[in-house]
Write a structure and sequence with these properties.
Layout lengths: L9 E5 L4 H12 L3 E6 L2 H11 L4 E5 L5 H15 L4 E4 L14 H29 L2 E6 L12 H21 L4 E8 L12 H9 L6 H13 L8 E4 L7
Parallel strand pairs: 1-2, 1-4, 2-3, 4-5, 5-6, 6-7
């Protein structure tokens, strides 16, 4: 089966300052993709841009809860690179705890980032993707979007919403040559899970109780390289030892 060459494509990656977003940005750049790095921590984006090279990567500070930031992100991408071929809607928040015990603004913020933020980004890229009759939208969901996990009621609700959004959007935009997919990881040993120590990450990988961000990036690459006739609608990626 032939695979697609990604060279020369243009991708927006939200949440690119760390974890899965950073790993995906590095993977895409290594595949010859020109990458727009979006996130709230501008210093991290600038450092990653310098590492990847300014001819390959552009850094744009963006809070996906703010429409003006999304408008600026899309505008600068089109101005700099002329098109958008790939959206990796990856920015997310995770706060654990029972609803009664967590501040309401923290709960609402999760929904605004994890679901509404994805909607804003998709709305931003759709006009240009529809005009060019091609594109790939991949949304980072979670195993929590497929299961109801205790202590994650609002997080799970936001990720269930993402799964529904992806499945229905796919049908809407398929006639325009746009593929829409989600990837749902289990435990990923990175910053959002509070794991940053290299020794702790190595132990978790060795014991098969967690994945690394680069594992998810490899799966994203696989999804994007599929022939255009194939849409990998939902991929769930679990560490082998995760009992769920």
């Amino acid at each position: 089966m032939e695979s697609q060459d990604l060279t020369g494509r243009v991708a927006i990656v939200t949440g690119a300052g760390s974890g899965i977003g950073e790993a995906c940005a590095r993977m895409l750049a290594g595949q010859g993709v020109r990458v727009v790095l979006a996130g709230r921590r501008e210093e991290r984006l600038r450092a990653l841009q310098a590492d990847l090279g300014e001819t390959v990567a552009s850094a744009v500070r963006c809070d996906v809860t703010q429409r003006r930031d999304i408008d600026n992100l899309i505008g600068r991408t089109l101005e700099h690179f002329g098109r958008v071929d790939i959206l990796l809607a990856n920015a997310g928040q995770f706060t654990q705890g029972r609803i009664a015990d967590v501040d309401v603004e923290a709960l609402v913020s999760m929904v605004d980032t994890n679901l509404a933020g994805v909607i804003r980004c998709i709305k931003g890229v759709l006009p240009s993707m529809i005009a060019q009759k091609s594109g790939d939208i991949i949304v980072t969901s979670s195993i929590s979007g497929h299961l109801d996990i205790d202590g994650e009621a609002v997080y799970s609700a936001s990720k269930h919403g993402v799964i529904t959004l992806v499945n229905l959007l796919r049908k809407e935009v398929s006639p325009h040559g746009i593929r829409v997919s989600s990837i749902s990881p289990g435990i990923v040993l990175n910053e959002i899970w509070g794991v940053t120590d290299p020794a702790e990450i190595a132990a978790g990988l060795r014991e098969r109780r967690g994945l690394c961000s680069e594992d998810i990036a490899e799966i994203v690459a696989y999804m994007l390289k599929m022939p255009r006739r194939i849409t990998l609608r939902d991929i769930v990626a679990l560490p082998q030892a995760q009992q769920i």
